[in-house]
Amino acid sequence: MDSDLIRRAQGGDEKALAELLKKHYSFIVKYVWKMSGDEQLAYDVTQDTLIKTIQKINQYNHRSKFSTWLIQIATHTYLDYKRKQKRKYELDEKLREEYPRSPVSLESDWHEVQEALWKLEDEHRIPLVLKHYYGYEYTDIAKMTRVKVGTVKSRVHYGLENLRKELRTDDK
């Protein structure tokens, strides 16, 4: 039954695609929930998995079970999410080390950092976020922003410097 739905979905039949995704939705949620132990994360990762499935449905080659292919996408999506969370945590810790203060919730701290980030110029904010939040290498950021690697390093440096100044100003 899946093979017919898959072929129709790959042919552009949106109803078949919707039916296919609906059929496998709870399977993916349960898998991610078991893997992560976090119900909300399971729903978030499942949504991202379904979006990627829609985007990549024509890449499914029928060599393995469709559910196996979905697990592969869900696993990669979950691992990507964990890497992003780790980078965010590391940035939070780095900023917390530089600006120790009385105990404040992580949510409140991150809100202050976001506010300070938005005050930076795009040319500093974008490479800074790509480097320290998403973990891209300078060479990758240079390609993305179409500037030289040295310029990216400089912008990240000045972005951090301006971010530090902004956070110090907010403390006073």
In short:
With 172 residues, the protein is an all-alpha fold.
What does this structure look like?
It comes from Halobacillus litoralis. Residues 20-87 form the RNA polymerase sigma-70 region domain. This is RNA polymerase sigma factor SigY. Residues 112-161 form the RNA polymerase sigma factor 70 region 4 type domain. Keywords: Sigma factor, Transcription, Transcription regulation. By secondary structure, this protein is mainly alpha-helical. It has two domains: 2-83, RNA polymerase sigma factor, region 2, helix turn helix motif (Rna Polymerase Sigma Factor, Chain: A, Orthogonal Bundle); 99-171, Arc Repressor Mutant, subunit A (Orthogonal Bundle), CATH 1.10.10. 81% of the residues lie in helices and 0% in strands. It contains eight helices and no strands. The chain has helices at 2-10, 14-36, 39-56, 66-98, 106-119, 122-132, 138-145, 149-171. Helix 7 (138-145) crosses helix 8 (149-171). Residues 102-106 have low confidence and may be disordered.
